[in-house]
Amino acid sequence: MSVTTHDRTETSDGSTAARSVLVKPGMCGHNSLFVGRLGDWTWETVSDLCGTNAFDATNADGSPTYLSFYYFHIRGSRQMHVHGLTFGDRLRVASRLFDFGSESILTLHEVRPEGGPDAPVDPDRFYAYDDPRCIYVENYNRWISRSRPGSNRDLVKSSPVGFRHDHLPRLPDAYSPRRVYDHARNRLTFLDGLPADRVPRPGFTLDYPIDASRDLNGVGLLYFASYFSIIDWALLRYWRRLGRGTAAFLDRVVLDQRLCYLGNADADSVLRISVDSWQKAGDPGDEIVNLVVRDRDTGRTVAVSTLHVLSTGGAHDGA
């Protein structure tokens, strides 16, 4: 009996692509591998539906331009979350593009177990986040180019030749991510106040040297999924400060993570990461964690991320 091991993609209209996906070793685990695959699906959908190859795009001057990630939001549940996926899982991924002009684009992904209803991505349903068997992913991307050769600083907006977007639907204003990422950029957090039942923990700061053997992509930029890995690196050290063992970290459930990309970093940079957290009163395993990533030498803010994370491994604490 043959087994289908390759992804199958169909496009149902000018703004939507659907994929049947087999989860393989290179796209799952307690890491950022699945996040990287989500990013690939964004680039593939744009390439398929917007008239330009996102993997080999150039601007009017002939310079390379990249579909960079500016805002990434992943919402899951105890039942279905990114770190809970494993070898052999079969998924149905629906991806829909929305028009944000010639320099940007928004993609909404719904990731469900294969075999469920195959409905188009509807913003009202998406932003209700009411299906516990769905991972909701929101990507806001901007086209950028380097402003000077060999540097990952001072990247500039730069639309590619042939990029089509007028045929895409517009996202209702009530769901626009602009207010959310502007808040994160200005306040250095996605939090808009805290519930009364949240108790602060002491914050701390640590340094992360960029690893040129692991963190850069094929064009020498700090890879967008590496930001997730770096945040997890800091989160693991926070975990250990609380006396929790590695098993508890591996058992974690990330219900919600937002990440705003405010800059890139050169291969020899050192990032300084500030970590603050708030536990739920009476439930220390239910936490909100906020991380701000800066270039240590310049103080320039590189990224902001806020997570709602559950430690389900009480028996592993201290293991």
UniProtKB/TrEMBL annotation:
Domain spans labelled LnmK N-terminal: 19-190
InterPro entries: LnmK-like_bifun_acyl/decarbox, LnmK_N_HDF
Domain of life of the native organism: Bacteria
Protein's name in the database: Biosynthesis cluster domain-containing protein
